[in-house]
Write a structure and sequence with these properties.
The protein has a four-stranded antiparallel sheet with strand order 1-2-3-4, with no helix packed on it. It has no helices and four strands. The chain starts with 8 loop residues before the first strand and ends with a strand. By secondary structure, the protein is mainly β.
């Protein structure tokens, strides 16, 4: 399970190379892309989009 920020909306999920890529729309109007490692079940990185 991945906890996303309060008020965020999951826009899309894709999988590549053992990672899930989650596109989130944030409540403040911004967006983030999260990289989730499927083997460790941990968020491996986050990218803030403006």
């Amino acid at each position: 399970m991945v906890d996303i920020p309060d008020g965020a909306r999951l826009v899309s999920v894709s999988e590549t190379g053992g990672r899930a890529v989650l596109h989130l729309q944030l409540s403040d109007g911004g967006a983030e892309v999260w990289f989730f490692d499927l083997s460790t079940r941990q968020v491996a990185g986050k990218l803030r989009l403006r």
